[in-house]
């Protein structure tokens, strides 16, 4: 089978397509023929070997993928041949709160190989069945971006009808957050540096749009939109010192879900404002299989379709990562097999 591996140069341009074989199945394992994968910002950190995401040379990247079960071990009972499944970002996190053990073996990173290969061997409980109405490309976007958005807004944020939700950007997590918030009946405020992207979001039902380039003090605009109250929930994807702008824009007793580090790994936070406004500042790290199952139920009920920017062929993988790196996309980037 064909796969892409990370080279010793740790760059997009030096990703290598290789021919390799897969291991014989253990009794509780399954073989999945991959149909599509989707890309996340985290995949760039892995490929470039940045900080804690640096994997060993030869690692197969990409955490998110969907495929068809084509072979099963002799003790497998949870899935059957021809089932369409997605791999779990955290194969050890079935349910409950996060623990050190549940963080182990995340796909496509420093611990284990990912999905950018034609066939993948996984444990039977490390996959989840995907709603039938979704295409392979749509289904491939769920394991990281969708479940992260769901975890922050719906599982821990408990967003409900009438809540004001501020969402930053138009990447995968941001647009899934937009879709989940709108489906819950929340009032969405969206930030983007592109008027064209804001116009697209308007057509999807977002009433409050702010271009942060033309309105650099966007936190003041959020206060105006919310009649001085601030946003009940903020999806923070930039990180670092940028969190202070979210602190200025959040409501009293509001929540900021920190799910991005685009501006750096550390920052100086206004702890006085954090305290005085009684803000809940929560880090969100993807989610469990149990959360994934609940999200699938909502997706099915609401018939929510993930927003895909563009699809690339497997042989054009490097081009897909370059588009991801450019930040010009609106929604998810997928690779089809």
- What is the average per-residue confidence, as pLDDT, rounded to a whole number? 96
Distance between the termini: 12 Å
Number of distinct beta strands: 15
Please describe the biggest sheet, giving its number of strands, its sense, and whether it closes into a barrel: 7 strands, mixed
Helix proportion of residues, in percent? Answer: 25-40%
User: How much β-strand is present in the residues?
Assistant: 15-25%
Q: From the alpha carbons, calculate the radius of gyration and give it in angstroms.
A: 20 Å
Q: Provide the low-confidence segments as ranges.
A: none
- Shape verdict: globular
Please provide the ordered H/E string of secondary-structure elements: EEEHEEEEHHEHEHEHEHEHEHEHE
Q: Topology of this protein?
A:
Layout: E1 2-5, E2 16-19, E3 29-38, H1 41-47, E4 64-72, E5 84-87, E6 119-123, E7 127-129, H2 136-139, H3 142-156, E8 164-168, H4 172-183, E9 187-192, H5 195-203, E10 208-211, H6 218-225, E11 231-236, H7 243-249, E12 250-258, H8 271-276, E13 280-283, H9 289-302, E14 308-313, H10 317-326, E15 332-336
Parallel strand pairs: 8-9, 8-11, 9-10, 11-12, 12-13, 14-15
Antiparallel strand pairs: 1-2, 3-4, 3-6, 3-15, 4-5, 5-7
Structure report:
By secondary structure, the chain is α/β, with parallel strands linked by helices. It has 10 helices and 15 strands. The protein has helices spanning 41-47, 136-139, 142-156, 172-183, 195-203, 218-225, 243-249, 271-276, 289-302, 317-326, and strands spanning 2-5, 16-19, 29-38, 64-72, 84-87, 119-123, 127-129, 164-168, 187-192, 208-211, 231-236, 250-258, 280-283, 308-313, 332-336. Strands 3, 4, 5, 6, 7, 14 and 15 form a 7-stranded mixed β-sheet that branches. The protein is globular, with a radius of gyration of 20 Å.
């Amino acid at each position: 089978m064909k796969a892409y591996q990370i080279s010793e140069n740790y760059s997009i341009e030096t990703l290598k397509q290789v021919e390799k074989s897969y291991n014989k199945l253990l009794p509780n394992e399954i073989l999945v023929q991959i149909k599509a994968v989707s890309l996340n910002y985290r995949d760039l950190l892995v490929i470039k070997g940045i900080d804690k995401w640096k994997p060993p040379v030869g690692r197969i990247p990409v955490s998110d993928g969907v495929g068809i079960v084509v072979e099963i071990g002799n003790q497998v009972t949870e899935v059957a041949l021809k089932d369409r499944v997605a791999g779990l970002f955290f194969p050890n996190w079935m349910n409950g709160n996060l623990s050190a053990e549940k963080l182990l073996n995340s796909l496509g990173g420093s611990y284990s190989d990912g999905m950018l290969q034609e066939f993948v061997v996984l444990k039977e409980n490390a996959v989840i069945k995907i709603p039938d109405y979704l295409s392979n490309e749509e289904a491939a976007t769920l394991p990281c971006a969708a479940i992260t958005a769901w975890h922050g807004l719906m599982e821990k944020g408990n967003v409900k009808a009438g809540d004001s939700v501020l969402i930053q950007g138009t990447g995968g997590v941001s647009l899934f957050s937009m879709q989940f918030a709108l489906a819950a009946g929340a009032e969405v405020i969206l930030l983007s540096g592109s008027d064209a992207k804001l116009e697209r979001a308007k057509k999807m039902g977002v009433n409050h749009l702010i271009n942060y380039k033309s309105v650099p003090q966007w936190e003041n605009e959020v206060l105006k939109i919310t009649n001085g109250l601030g946003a009940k929930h903020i999806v923070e994807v930039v990180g670092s010192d940028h969190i202070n702008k979210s602190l200025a824009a959040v409501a009293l007793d509001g929540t900021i879900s920190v799910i991005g580090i685009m501006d750096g790994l550390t920052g100086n936070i206004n702890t006085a404002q954090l305290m005085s406004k009684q803000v809940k500042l929560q880090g969100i790290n993807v989610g469990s299989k149990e959360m994934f199952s609940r999200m699938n139920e909502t997706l099915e009920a609401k018939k929510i379709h993930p927003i895909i920017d563009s699809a690339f062929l497997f042989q054009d993988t490097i081009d897909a990562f370059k588009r991801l790196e450019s930040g010009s996309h609106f929604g998810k980037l997928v690779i089809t097999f």
